[in-house]
Amino acid sequence: MLQRITACAVLAGMSLLLAGCIQSKTVVTVEKDGSGTIEQTAYWAKMQMEGMPGGLKAGGNLDEQCAKTAKALGEGVTVKSAAPLTDRKDWEGAKVVYAFNDISKVRINTVPPVGNLKAESKDISFEFAKAPTPKLTVTMPPMESPVPDQPKEAAQGPEADKMAEAMMSMMLKDLLIDFQVKVNGVITQTNAAYPNAQKNGLTLVHEDFGGLMGDEAGAKKFKLLKDAKDPKAMKAALADKDIAKFIQMDPSEKVTIEFK
Fold first, then answer.
1. If 246 and its partner were Cys, which of 39, 208, 241, 259 is the partner (CB 3.0–4.6 Å)?
2. Domain range holding 183?
């Protein structure tokens, strides 16, 4: 029953403060008239649920939780389908599909709030023009390191830093966040950094920390990503070939997609 109650709330709330045991994929699909769907699939370790704060343990049901999430996503967003996932041992999950009439009214975060925790990054927003050909403009939040900062009160020094990095690696080892935009058609022009081979979509954010930390070369470059505190440093870190295999974040402030 808890799984049914919390499914949409978890999908609506993936904070890096908790996300070490969360894996999620979001696909926003846009039609030629600006309508479309948001498909979110997420898995979280069962033990993660025991520590969830806020209203995730409160009463309610799947429909109520998803309706609340749909309202937060924007005007006219509705729940199309929702179902728990039980196909992975020691993990719980859910797949929820939302529908919208106008993509320009949708606001979505790759790491929305979980319970009482709020994501620090701003939402992704959209603009859409139907003529002369469909054109979607995605406004990205300011680029920042996906690795959470070490608390200011934490112990300092080489040994403390080494211990902190080890703890960070353990926390992030299962973290996977993927955010894609697709169109029902063929992309004719885009400035996106990571378009797909099918020419019908692109990746805005892909953070596979499990892959990064499990790769010898990638793990050695983790410090580059952790220490990137401004957009210039982030772009440099993401350009490193050992990091780029596992971490992608589109560097453009505005990503444009024209399609037919």
1. 208
2. 2-259
